[in-house]
Structure formats: C-alpha cells, structure tokens
C-alpha cells in the first residue's frame, strides 16, 4: 500500500449527467461500454471545467461491480463514496510535495501489486501543472510498461504542461467551458433559490465556466451584481457622493470586491458595445450608453480594468473604494 498517497472520497456521478463537452462524453461512454477505456488518461481544461469530476467518474467506473458502470449502488461504488475504497488512490499536485518524485516512485512500485478488491486499481494524479520533469520522467517508466490492471488519470490545465513522452503514451480528453445558457441551467439546479437572471448574468461573466460561476455565486454573486449595477448607474446618472458611498461598500472583502469589479467590467464592456451601435442584451448598458459620449464610456471601461489590477496589489480595501470613486469620475 502507498502510505504517501491520500485516499479520498470519490463522488459517484453518472457520465450522462456531465454538462456539455458532448464529444468527449460520447467517446468516453463508448469506450466504457466496449471495455476499451485507455490505461493512461489525461484530462485537460481550465479550472472549473469539470476535470476532477470526470476523473472521479472514471475512477468509480474502474472499480464498480454493477452492470452499468459506474452504477452508484454496488458495494464498490458505496465504498468509493465513503472514502474507503482501497483501490482508488489520489495524489494531489496542489498539496506540497503532492506529486514529488518520491510520491511517483511509490505509485510506481504500488502499481505492480495486485488490486485489493477491484479488477482495476486507479491512480488519480490531480493538478499535474506542478509536476516537475524529474517526477514526470519517473512516472514515464510505469507508463511505458503499464501493469494490465491499473489505470492512471491525470488532470492538468493544459496537456502542454506535460512532457511529450508522457502525452504520447496517454489518451487526451480536453474539456471546454459550456455556452453560458447551458452553464446557467446547470447551476440553477444547484441554487434553486437564486434568481435565474443573476445566475445567467454570472455564467456570462464567467464565459460558461461552471466552476467559476458556482464560486462567484457562493461569494455573494447576487449582491455583487446588484452593487455593480448601482455603482454603474450612479456613475452615469448620480452624484459624486452617491458613487463614493456605494464604492465604499467594497471594503466588505477582497473576493466580494473582485466579484463587483467583474460585474462592473462586464457592464462597461456591454456599454461600449451599445455606444458603438453593436448588439447587446444588457438593459443597463443600453440605458447608460445614451447618456455619455463614447470617449467617456471608454475611459470608464479602462479605469475599471485598471481597478482590477490595483485590487490585485496589496491596496488597503478601505482606501480602494474611495480611489475607485475618484477614477470613475470622467
Ligand atoms: Zn457500482
């Protein structure tokens, strides 16, 4: 048994429930049905596109003893759900030393030991972005002559982060963000009390990235979206004092302030579109675009983008609101 590897709960989810990326899902479910799923798999895509979820589905499929794998009901699936399946191992690159040469060597020697219960042992190598070349080279040795009852699943933001020699011995599945409408529909099921238009707006801001959309909503997306709209209207129609009072609410916290700026930036981008006569579905953008010259709107948009980088520095949040109100004055 690999002592250095962390065993973790694997949430069962059926492949059919996976949103978007239909070609990847079709290909995977065909391979699962025909028992031709590769022994080494790379899943790449931006943070929030579902790499880990997909890796978990593949892990469950690999140990499931039901008829339609992963069934979610057999003892193996239940063990996987309860963090106790002895044949699912996780090495996480976000943990310090999580994918070090030592950990990979442990995986390598463990891989040649027969599975405990399942027909296949699964090693999930998560967030391989930080897996350095020596560790990848150590891993290559087991990829070159893989034991027959083992499956490796790697997740990485881009397959290009991995050595060509690792890539060429693995099957690559690339995940992309969903169209915002589809992402919103999915997220709305998870947040039934949240206003659908806000979810859709957030999904549009996050370019259909489901993970990011969920995170933004959890960080007070609805409140952030409303405050951004109030600030935006105050900049166009209100008094300087109104803008100052509203921007000072950003001192509530950095993630919240970042969310508000994202919404402000989206409003500004839509407003620029409206100002040049391009199509926009944003009511607030259309409303504001009529009240200012294009040059001023562009300057506001630029200053909002500047504010995003300023927030990224260590600026004191109590001053940030006041500073923002001053640069929104055009
Ligand atoms: Zn099962």
Helix content: 40-55%
Tell me the number of strands. Answer: 5
Give the uncertain stretches in residue-range form: 1-10
Gap between N and C termini, in Å? 65 Å
Overall residue-averaged pLDDT value: 89
Based on helices, strands and strand pairing, what is the structural class? alpha/beta
3D shape: elongated
Strand order in the sheet with the most strands? 2-3-4-1-5
Order of helices and strands: HEHHEHEHEHEHHHHHHHHH
Q: Let me know the largest β-sheet.
A: 5 strands, parallel
Full CATH superfamily name of the largest domain:
P-loop containing nucleotide triphosphate hydrolases
Task: Give the number of helices.
Answer: 15
Overall description:
The chain has helices at residues 22-33, 51-63, 75-81, 101-111, 133-144, 164-167, 180-190, 196-205, 210-218, 221-237, 240-247, 254-275, 283-289, 294-312, 317-327; strands at 40-44, 88-92, 121-126, 150-156, 171-174. The chain has 330 residues and is an alpha/beta fold. It folds into two domains: 15-174, P-loop containing nucleotide triphosphate hydrolases (Rossmann fold, 3-Layer(aba) Sandwich), CATH 3.40.50; 219-327, Zinc Finger, Delta Prime, domain 3, CATH 1.20.272. The protein has a five-stranded parallel β-sheet, sandwiched between helices. Helix 4 links the parallel strand 2 (88-92) and strand 3. Helix 12 (254-275) packs antiparallel against helix 14 (294-312). The N and C termini lie far apart (65 Å). Zinc ion (ZN) binds next to helix 3.
């Amino acid at each position: 048994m690999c002592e250095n590897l962390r065993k973790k709960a694997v949430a069962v989810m059926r492949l059919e429930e996976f949103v978007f990326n239909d070609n990847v899902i079709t290909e995977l479910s065909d391979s699962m049905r025909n028992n031709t799923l590769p022994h080494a798999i790379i899943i790449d895509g931006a943070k929030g596109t579902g790499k880990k979820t997909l890796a978990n589905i593949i892990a469950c499929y690999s140990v499931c003893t039901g008829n339609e794998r992963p069934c979610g009901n057999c003892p193996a699936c239940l063990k996987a759900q309860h963090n106790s399946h002895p044949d699912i191992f996780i090495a996480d690159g976000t943990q310090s030393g999580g994918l070090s040469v030592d950990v990979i060597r442990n995986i390598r020697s463990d891989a040649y030991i027969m599975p405990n219960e399942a027909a296949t042992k699964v090693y999930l190598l998560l967030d391989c972005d930080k897996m350095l070349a020596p560790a990848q080279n150590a891993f290559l040795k087991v990829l070159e002559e893989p034991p027959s009852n083992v499956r490796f699943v790697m997740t990485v933001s881009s397959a290009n982060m991995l050595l060509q020699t690792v890539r060429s011995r693995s099957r690559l599945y690339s995940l992309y963000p969903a169209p915002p409408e589809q992402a919103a529909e999915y997220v709305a099921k998870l947040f039934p009390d949240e206003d659908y238009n806000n979810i859709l707006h957030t999904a549009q801001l996050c370019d259909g990235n489901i993970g990011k959309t969920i995170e933004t909503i959890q960080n007070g997306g609805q409140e952030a979206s409303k405050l951004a709209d109030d600030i935006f209207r105050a900049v166009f129609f209100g008094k300087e004092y109104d803008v100052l009072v509203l921007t000072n609410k950003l001192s509530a916290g950095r993630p919240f302030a970042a969310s508000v700026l994202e919404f402000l930036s989206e409003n500004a981008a839509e407003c620029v579109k409206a100002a040049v006569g391009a199509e926009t579905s944003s009511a607030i953008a259309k409303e504001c675009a009529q009240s200012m010259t294009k040059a001023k709107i562009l300057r506001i948009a630029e200053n909002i983008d500047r504010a995003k980088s300023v927030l990224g520095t260590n600026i004191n949040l109590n001053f940030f609101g006041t500073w923002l109100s001053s640069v929104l004055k055009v």
